[in-house]
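Anyone have tokens for NB-ARC domain-containing protein? Sequence:
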Amino acid sequence: MIWRSLLPNPSVNDLLADLIAVLSNGKETDLPEPFNHKISRLIHYLQRHRCLLVLDGADTVLQECAAPKITCRDCIWLDHTTIGEYCELFRRVGEATHQSCLILTSRIKFHEIASLEGKTRPVRVFCLQGLQVKDIQELFKTKGIFRGTPDNWNQLIESYAGNPYVLNRIATTIQQLFDGSITEFLKQKIRVFGRIFYNLDQEFKHLSDTAKATLQCMVINRQPISFSQLRTKMPSSVSSQELLETLELLQARSWIDAKSGLFSLQAMMVEYVKSFILDEKIAKFQPTAFLEQEHQRQVAS
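Reply: yep, here.
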């Protein structure tokens, strides 16, 4: 097994040199210059050896392959004429026949993988489910002693969808500020704050105005909503194609859930979008506000 973190972003050439050196037991260090030839050498060793290769944090390097502004049509799907080198590496390994296994951990389901995956294909995508109560309790035990009712523990799951990264930070806050009392923490009715807010804020600000308006409509609706229902609530300037692409983008980035043909936001996302709208002082949560702002910018330019 070979495990490598992609944080901070190593160059793909350095990563290939490292992997090939390990798989060749240090015998191959003078690699061919063309990038595609280096990928071919890696695939050669994946064919010769049965190896489990784990690349942790693939979403960090995928961001480098995408344009800086995430929009529906031309950004996160990476459909550019110049495909990022990491995307090319992942695509070729996914298409090649070999006896090894490459595992990518990522918060983003990106286009190059989505086009290769299938239940009967070698490339699969597994969405990790959130922690259950007993799992959260074990996690919290590592932080100290916590007090809470069964309903309190279930509220934590509902509020944060069982996300271990978020819950680990929440546990620290509860321990340091509320002496381990989950009940007291929940009474404050503050779910998104600190680093959690910052991370969501950075992602949200890079979404297209159509994506922001879509999330806003879903927050206003409060209940899971179908595509046709959402279409009627969006401004007429947003085409069905653009809305479909937007929903694909939001699902790929884990902003929305899709189940039984209905779309919804996790509780944590709802709280963030509400706070963003209030901070921006957009009256009455008008879904057209983001799009009107964009139109004004275009006219001004």
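Residues 64-83 have pLDDT under 50 and may be disordered.
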